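Lecture notes, continued. The same structure-token format from the folding unit now serves as the input rather than the output. Read the line below as a description of shape only.
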């Protein structure tokens, strides 16, 4: 069964948001050393069942949070999403060193991400 494994927050001012979430919730942030401006979020002790996330700079899209679901094959899941009334927003693309990601809307317009684990993704 696929499960939610990650959440993403976008912000016009990521540095301000990092400070806010640190002070309010005690979350830990680490700037990602990848090709885009992104902070990894740790929401708790790794011995607990928790969901960690990320925070990135928002462009023109509306504010919101996107939850990401772990899948074994991102391309196959996108086919199933479209077959069942969903809409692909962003096709499968590499997150270097992490895996293959894509974004979609369910039939009611809710946005989600999917992630196929692959440390060799480039």
């Amino acid at each position: 069964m696929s499960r939610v494994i990650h959440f993403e927050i976008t912000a016009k001012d990521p540095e301000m948001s990092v400070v806010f979430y640190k002070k309010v919730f005690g979350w830990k942030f680490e700037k990602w050393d990848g090709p885009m401006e992104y902070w990894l979020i740790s929401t708790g002790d790794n011995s607990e069942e928790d969901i960690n996330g990320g925070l990135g700079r928002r462009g023109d899209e509306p504010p919101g949070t996107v939850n990401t679901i772990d899948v074994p094959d991102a391309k196959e899941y996108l086919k199933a999403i479209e077959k069942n009334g969903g809409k692909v927003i962003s096709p499968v693309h590499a997150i270097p060193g992490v895996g293959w990601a894509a974004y979609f809307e369910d039939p009611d317009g809710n946005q989600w991400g999917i992630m196929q684990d692959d440390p060799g993704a480039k």
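Point for the exam: The domain at 71-122 is CATH 3.10.180.10 (2,3-Dihydroxybiphenyl 1,2-Dioxygenase; domain 1).
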